[in-house]
Amino acid sequence: MSEDSVEKRLDEISPRRRKLLTWLTGGFLSLWGLGFAWVVAAFVKPPRSPRSLAERVLKIGPIDSLPIGKAQLVRHGRDPIFVIRTDEETMVGLSGVCSHLHCVLNWDDQQQVLDCPCHEGAFDVNGNVLKGPPPRPLKRFRVETRLGQIYVHL
Ligand code: FES
Questions:
Q1: Domains of the chain: which residue ranges?
Q2: Against a cut of 0.85, is the pTM above it?
Q3: What architecture does CATH give domain 53-153?
Q4: Ligand 1 centre and the CA of 105: distance in Å?
């Protein structure tokens, strides 16, 4: 191969290489710029404020208003919650929404179960499925009594 043909060939390749290097450098700088912008945005953005205690705890009412064996349906946002008093000191908080197709449940005082009017599903006082198509137990909420009042922790 003559020296002229090698130089000619280098001249042909060199612009391609230059273009590739330019493209790679541009791509690298773009990615670096995006990463840097993300870090700056994360630093400047105010932190999520922690939910206040009032948002996390729902006051239900006086203990005396809920006799043993009764349940109270509490409307909270889209999903109601049942507070069930099982004995003198024990109260259970359960989602009032069926785990099957999200129908609102009914409390049956006689049977001490939560019945679903849609497909005859039923849950016990611990939220376990007794019968019907519900695929999983009900979501539980911690219930607390303080100074004669009932509170549900969301
Ligand atoms: S929605 Fe409750 S059993 Fe189907």
A1: 1-45, 53-153
A2: no
A3: 3-layer Sandwich (2.102)
A4: 9
